[in-house]
Amino acid sequence: MSKNSVFIYSDAFQTYKFHDRHPFNQLRVKLTYDLLQTVGALHDSQIVAPRLATDEELALVHDIDYIEAVKKAGKGILSEEIAINYGLGTEDTPIFPNMHEASALLVGGTLTAVDYVLSGKAEHALSLGGGLHHGFRGKASGFCIYNDSSVAIKYMQEKYGVRVLYVDTDAHHGDGVQWTFYDDPNVCTFSIHETGRYLFPGTGNVNERGQGKGYGYSFNIPVDAFTEDESWLAAYKEALMEIADFFRPDVILTQNGVDAHYYDPLTHLCATMRIYREIPKLAHQIAHQYCNGRWIAVGGGGYDIWRVVPRAWALLWLEMTEQSDISGPLPKEWIARWQQHAPVSLPLEWDDPDDLYPPIPRKAEITEKNAQTVIKALQPIRSNKQRLNL
């Protein structure tokens, strides 16, 4: 029997853990899961356990030598010199025990979501353990060991023969996915992120448009530091609507990093919970407008794991399951359960207060700059339309 939406989850997602002081903390997935269960919005019948990705599946994107290096690193038998060549053992991506198995589970969670959606068992699927968009073919980067979205897209192409629209709303550029499909006209990548002038990984410029047959299928909107809700949403909505109409995908895969929020410690944007209500609404609309409802969503960045991530990711699931009218106070029992573990005061409401941060003095300048970036990003689509009209 078909289920409309499934939630890929296991407590074993917690095994992807670098160390206690590392900003990437998968406790945020459990916090989200618990919040949704507490409000009665996630039922046991909707929960699906992830599987481990096989070596063959990982090798759709990653070099075999790299996969073997990750295995050895997790067993403590990879030399430091070789590890560094693979991006392992760095400050961003330290080595931890059984890192291959932990990473393969995150990839397997995303592949589980893919199979549920593309086999027709569900219209939508959410795997918050995934979204590790910085991983490269033969190198770990930016907290990411294996790139689950890239593997999932290759898997979708090979098993189901579909055209994929990848949408990345993380504050960091979705570089690993972009470069994997940079010459592929059957994968369209769209990343809206903080400009690389100030932020890792330093890429994602407007002029990164693809190459060869893939030219014109890569879109980037690098917004200025201190961008606020209105400007961010205007850029996202205008760009994504035009890109989806241009590409007309068979399936949409969204990466839902939530580190554009004002509270996030690693970025410089000034978004509030408002954008995390709106981001999934448009993705949901596009899924039904172009993809017969086929929508796969994964997690991503998000480093204020207490005040931001659980609310934002819960809102994603609530939109996916058409329960997004929730507002007002967060459940008292959820706050009581987790406040004793949190180093900050947990929010009391689903939404942020209007005075979350002081006024941004360059607001008009930032807004105009972002608007011009959107025009540049969409110029190839609009020029082509003009030619066709002539």
TrEMBL record:
Any one Gene Ontology molecular-function term assigned to this protein's record: histone deacetylase activity
Pfam families: Hist_deacetyl (PF00850)
Top-level taxon of the source organism: Bacteria
Gene Ontology biological process terms in this record: acetoin catabolic process; epigenetic regulation of gene expression
Manganese in keyword set: no
InterPro entries reported for this sequence: AcuC (IPR003085), HDACs (IPR000286), His_deacetylse_dom (IPR023801), His_deacetylse_dom_sf (IPR037138), Ureohydrolase_dom_sf (IPR023696)
Keyword terms: Acetoin catabolism
Protein name: Acetoin utilization protein AcuC
Keyword Manganese annotated: no
Organism lineage: Bacteria, Bacillati, Bacillota, Bacilli, Bacillales
Pathway(s) served: Ketone degradation; acetoin degradation
